[in-house]
Amino acid sequence: MSELIPINIVIADRSYRIRIEANEEEMVRKTASLINDKIAEYRQNLAGKDMQDYVAMVLLWFATEQNTSTIHELKWKEATEKINSLEKLIDKALI
Questions:
Q1: How far apart are the C-alpha atoms of 34 and 60, rounded to whole Å?
Q2: DSSP letter at 47?
Q3: Mean pLDDT score of the chain, rounded to an integer?
Q4: What is residue 90's predicted lDDT score, i.e. its pLDDT?
């Protein structure tokens, strides 16, 4: 197990001190930056009462993105399996 390092990240104008593995630092910082960018986008384009509204909208967006990615992966896997099956049928027909 790798050594955990402490880092500070800021999300929605709040600072959080977390401990992560060193090889995850770049990903965590980029994710925090993406979250903050989305919060700024929602603050500019949508009406909300407070920061919690924007954080909730970003959370919904992030979860939807993850779900969409998973669906795309499943569709690609299904398509690959169908292509492999067709390839086997073609191989049998050529023999």
A1: 14
A2: -
A3: 87
A4: 87
Select the highest-mean-pLDDT range: 16-20, 51-55, 68-72: 16-20
**Amino acid identity, residue 10?**
V
Q: What is the DSSP letter of 22?
A: G
Per-residue pLDDT averaged across 62-72, rounded? 73
Amino acid at 26: E
CA 50, chain centre distance (Å): 24
> Reduced to 3 states, what is the DSSP secondary structure of residue 43?
helix
pTM of the full predicted structure? 0.65
Measured distance CA(86)–CA(84) in Å, rounded:
5
Q: Residue 74 carries which DSSP code?
A: H
The candidate with the shortest Cα–Cα distance to 38, out of 14, 20, 62, 15, is 62
